[in-house]
Write a structure and sequence with these properties.
By secondary structure, the chain is an alpha+beta fold. It is about 20% helix and about 35% strand. The chain has a single domain, classed as Mannose-Binding Protein A, subunit A (Mannose-Binding Protein A, Chain A, Roll), CATH 3.10.100. It has four helices and ten strands; from the N terminus they run αβββαβαββαββββ. The radius of gyration is 22 Å and the shape is globular. The chain starts with a helix and ends with a strand. Keywords: Signal. This is C-type lectin domain-containing protein. InterPro entries: C-type_lectin-like, C-type_lectin-like/link_sf, C-type_lectin/matrix_domain, CTDL_fold.
Length: about 190
């Protein structure tokens, strides 16, 4: 014991263990309402009922190092639509901003600014292509979960937004689903 004490007398070991609970693969502290979260295809989606404009919704997602959901294919469209329908009573939203925007006659993804290859606009609604105006897309449950092009500045009580989080974010995240992220910090200080 005396030997160990003598050996460590010149050093102070500081060990901190931080445990952050990652809720279903989403950033820690995102929500306490697990029903509003969907894990699909390696991504976490959060269905927010906060009424915001398109840019405010995008900024809200970015605060947790996410972005408005990008629907790249029909399978993702179906998964998000079904979950939106399931949580519509909890979220009190019938429509959600998603990460597709029309600027300069082209639909782009808000997160990367790349051309959107998958589009699912309702044929009965006037899309920005038809009107020649810019607009932002929202997934609308009242239109068979098709997309509606709308004024990006619109704020209405039943328009929420869907945030997407991926494993490339620096926010606490795990693709494995529920779990703990443990970070260990060891600092050695030499005492003179």
């Amino acid at each position: 014991m005396h030997c160990a004490s003598k050996y460590l007398s010149g050093y102070v070991l500081f060990l901190a263990v931080q445990i952050v609970f990652s809720q279903n693969g989403c950033p820690a502290g995102l929500t306490t309402e697990q029903e509003l979260i969907l894990n699909y295809d390696g991504n976490c989606y959060f269905f927010s009922n906060t009424a915001l404009s398109y840019s405010q919704a995008n900024n809200s997602c970015a605060q947790k190092e996410g972005f408005l959901a990008v629907i790249r294919d029909n399978a993702t469209q179906i998964a998000l639509s079904k979950h939106a329908d399931l949580v519509s009573d909890i979220a009190e939203s019938s429509s959600y901003w998603i990460g597709i925007k029309r600027e300069n006659s082209t639909y782009t993804t808000t997160s990367l600014g790349e051309s959107a290859e998958f589009l699912n606009f309702d044929s009965n609604s006037l899309s920005p292509v038809q009107t020649g105006q810019n607009g932002c897309a929202r997934l609308d449950l009242t239109e068979d979960s098709k997309w509606i092009a709308d004024d990006c500045a619109r704020v209405f009580w039943d328009i929420g937004h869907i945030c997407q989080y991926t494993g490339t974010s620096s926010a606490p995240y795990t693709k494995a689903g529920p779990g703990f992220i443990i970070s260990i910090l060891a600092v050695f200080l030499i005492l003179q």
